[in-house]
Amino acid sequence: MPVKIPNSLPARAILESENVFVMGEERAAHQDIRPLSVAILNLMPTKVATETQLLRLLGNSSLQVDVTLLHTVTHEAKNTDAGHLLNHYDTFENVRDQKFDGLIITGAPVEQLNFKEVDYWPELTRIMDWAETNVESTFHICWGAQAGLYHRYGIQKYPLSAKMFGVFEHRTLLPTEKLLRGFDDTFLAPHSRHTEIRRADLEKIPDLQILAESDKAGVYIVGSLNGRHLYITGHSEYDPLTLKGEYDRDVKKGLPINIPDNYFPDNDPSKMPMVRWRGHASLLYANWLNYYVYQVTPYDQMQIPSGAIHSDF
Fold it and tell me: Which of 170, 229, 235, 310 does the annotation list as catalytic?
């Protein structure tokens, strides 16, 4: 089934060229089903690239997904055309009375700041609080995961001596958990961050369980016991060349940056990287949409959140 997006969204042409199933608004209006409504709070400066990455994954499921793109109003986007935001994005104030089956909160390049130093932190916390009563399941990515864990549980992030940068092997810890259905015992996923959360802090919170981790990259997937909050510390949504773009950018600026681990063949930046995480990414998002959203969200959206225990639906 398709992801439903506006005909004018730049991501549409890219996704169609990749044979990703997308549907225009007119065609979707004639289908007698209720699509899932998913909001994406896009905190990344490269908004078009990020929305395309996420729509690619949401469009790879068997469910029709109606996407609402959100941006913060307390931070001026300097790398995205104002017209693009005006035409394709909404603000929290305009949707706060709506209900959503799912919410994705992206990462953001602010992890080296204290949470409360981020200019849109008060707005972000209002959105996270609102999601408790207006969203069935929330999917947090990278800094978004750190922000959610800090806001809800006071879990701190810690600076790393060097950027966690590359594609790392992870292992599943709870293979019977629905989010991990179909996962191999070990799988690959990209990371790109300067800070980390620690297992010892998570283990103090009875409401949380660690679902996957890496010997080198640390904790990767954390979930609340009721399944309504998932925290992903990496970037499974990354395109084949995203890490290369970040590496080339920092090299050009003269910033200290290591070659991303396990990314370039023979560790040679002149060679094109091999994509080895695409299957994991598709399964991760498909399982979230199916088991943590579609299977438990009520047909009547005004009843969201349903109150169902996701592990016992």
Answer: 235
